Structure formats: C-alpha cells, structure tokens
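Re: that backbone. Tokens:
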C-alpha cells in the first residue's frame, strides 16, 4: 500500500537516511503485473536469502511495467541498535546506491560510485532494460585507491559481459530533490546518475519493518486528517472574520447614509409637499367640470322650439337637461342631432310628457373626455 503524500513533500524532499551499500545484496526478480508486488517480493526473498524474512531489512524498486523488481536486503545484525533507533526519525531509509538504478542517457554503460571505503556499480546492456544487467557492491578497509577502483570496474564489466565499455566514476553523497509528484535520487550532482520514483512507491523503497511502515502510515493519515481539520477551522474562522469586517463596514456605511438621509429629510418633505400640491392642482385643472362647454355643444344642436329649463352635471363628462318644446317632433330631432355630433359618446331621452300643448322631457348626454379637454374653455 503506497504511503500517502504529505503536504510538505510538495515543497521539500523527505528527510532520508542513506545506508551503506556494501551491507546489501541485490537481485532482480520477475513479478506478475496483475498481482500485488509486495507479497511476490516476500516469496522471492524467502527463496533467495539464507535467512528467514523477519531477520532481514529489505525493500525493492518496482519496474514501470510492474513485471520485475530490483530487490535489496541486508541482515539485521549488520546494523547497530543505535543506527536502527535513529531510523525512526527519518521519513525514508534506503541504500545509498539507489540512484544508480536510474538508466543513463547512453547505453551500454558502466557506472561506479565511490563513497569512502565502499564502491557500488551498475552495468547497463540495453536502453530498453528496466534495471541494470549487473549490480555489484564492495567494501574496503579504507578509501578505495585508483587501482582498486579500476579492478572493481573490470570485475563489474566481466560480470555483465561489457569488457569493451569504459567505466564512468562518480563521487559525492546521494541527494533527493522533488519535482511534481516524483522524488529524484541523485549521485555526483546534477550530471551524475539520477532515478525518478513516484510517491506511490515510497514504502516499497523503504527497508524498515513493514509493521512499522503500516503504523507510520496510520499516524500520518490521522495527522493529515487533523491538519485538514485545522486548516478547515482556520479557513472558517478567516471567512467569519472577513464577513464580520464586511458587516461592520456595511453597518458604518448604512449609518452614514441614514444620517445623510435624516439631514436631508426636511428638504425632501418640502419637495414632496410641493409636488403633491402641484399634482393636485393639475388634477383639479384637468378634471374640473365643464358645464358651459357642454351647454355650448347642446345649444348648437338645439331646435328653435326647444327651451332648456334646468341643467345638472353628473361626473366630469355627463350633463342632464330638463327641456320643453311646443313641437313634440323636435324631441326626436334633438336626440338625433346630438347622436351625430363628434365628441358625444351617448345620448338618452326619458320622462317625455305632453301637457297644455307643451312636451317636457329629460335628455342625458355623455361626452368623450378628450373632446371636452380639447375644446376651448369658456369663462364662468
């Protein structure tokens, strides 16, 4: 199971302990790409190692196609209790030769890393190989001499069948850099061997006990949950503070605007009163009764025998006239004349009575509003 990515790994590489290369034996073992790699490596180690698996510190590098793995293991007695105790503080514990497992730009190649009293070398035959064809590690009582380096390179070339390929020697301590979602193991600076490993393989590389790594994963998972909870709480608090500041700002702005409105209220009241009076005056002017204008229209259509006795207005557009005539036929003539007049909406005659040679009647005339307001006004 891969180790969860820690947030700080995205910025800085993990604290790594590099173990002496000569304490490990290295093998390439085939795997089934469809199965989990770790149980397969455990079975392979039980067949390769002369010691039981619980007595070994081991790890492996998985090939990109998951069809093979570079496995390395060392007996626990090769490390002191103080060394093992110091590992607990590290984020990663791996052999120092791990960067040599990165394929060089030019193949075939022999690459030898010299670090104090030890030499570690790899031989690459083909550019398509996921791992070196040979890996060799050797320790010396003191720093390896030039003759010992050359002899080591010849032995490595003989083992790989690359006697004609010159060896490339690199010095320096292993380093780790971070790029995106990958860790890069370096030897000999930026121009030396380099191995890129995704974060999902971190636990595969580590040589510590699998139980310890499982416990660490659980602790890191809980730590990540607590960290995310803390960040969520801080974010919530920040949002709440921002909203409170915004609310206070809006409160002050609203209060300032309210004070400004209160200061201008007397002026606004005066303007509203004046506007109301003006609107009322205009309403009265536009809706006032126009009885004389109505009578002018009726009088123009009145037959000569018809006399108006009394007039009454009903609303702004209706006039009712009581009239009499000596000629009963003029009642109908008067009504017809008004019906044909532009600006009159309705004419109705009622209460027609004949007495002592006179005919009395009541005629109600409804005018169109726009006709009256468009007609010239007659002074009272």
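Recovered sequence:
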């Amino acid at each position: 199971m891969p180790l969860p990515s820690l947030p700080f790994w995205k910025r800085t590489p993990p604290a790594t302990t590099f173990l002496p290369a000569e304490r490990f034996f290295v093998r390439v073992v085939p795997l089934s790409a469809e199965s989990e790699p770790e149980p397969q490596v455990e079975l392979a180690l039980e067949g390769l190692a002369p010691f039981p698996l619980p007595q070994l510190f081991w790890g492996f590098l998985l090939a990109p196609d998951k069809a093979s793995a570079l496995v390395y293991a060392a007996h626990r007695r090769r490390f002191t209790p103080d060394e093992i105790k110091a590992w607990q503080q590290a984020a990663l514990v791996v052999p120092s030769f791990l960067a040599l497992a990165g394929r060089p730009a030019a193949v075939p190649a022999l690459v030898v890393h010299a670090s104090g009293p030890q030499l570690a070398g790899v031989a690459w035959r083909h550019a398509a190989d996921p791992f070196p064809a040979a890996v060799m590690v050797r320790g010396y009582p003191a720093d390896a001499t030039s003759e010992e380096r050359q002899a080591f390179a010849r032995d490595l070339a003989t083992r790989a069948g690359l006697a004609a390929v010159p060896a490339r020697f690199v010095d320096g301590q292993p380093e780790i850099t971070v790029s995106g979602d990958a860790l890069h193991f370096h030897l000999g600076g930026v121009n030396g061997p380099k191995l890129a490993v995704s974060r999902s393989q971190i636990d595969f590389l580590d040589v510590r006990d699998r139980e310890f790594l499982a416990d660490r994963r659980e602790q890191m998972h809980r730590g990540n949950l607590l960290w995310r909870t803390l960040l969520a709480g801080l974010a919530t608090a920040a949002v709440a503070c921002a909203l409170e500041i915004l609310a206070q700002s809006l409160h002050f702005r609203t209060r300032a605007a309210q004070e400004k409105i209160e200061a201008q209220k007397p002026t606004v009241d005066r303007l509203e009163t004046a506007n109301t009076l003006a609107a009322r005056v205009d309403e009265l002017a536009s809706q006032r009764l126009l009885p004389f204008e109505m009578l002018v229209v009726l009088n123009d259509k009145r037959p000569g025998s018809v006399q108006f006795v009394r007039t009454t207005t009903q609303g702004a557009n209706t006039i009712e006239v009581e009239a009499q005539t000596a000629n009963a036929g003029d009642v109908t003539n008067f009504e017809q004349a008004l019906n044909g007049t532009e600006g009159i909406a309705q004419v109705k005659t009622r209460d027609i009575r004949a007495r002592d040679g006179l005919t009395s009647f009541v005629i109600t005339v409804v005018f169109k509003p726009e006709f009256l307001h468009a007609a010239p006004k007659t002074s009272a």
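The longest strand covers residues 344-355. Residues 213 and 219 are 10 Å apart (CA to CA).
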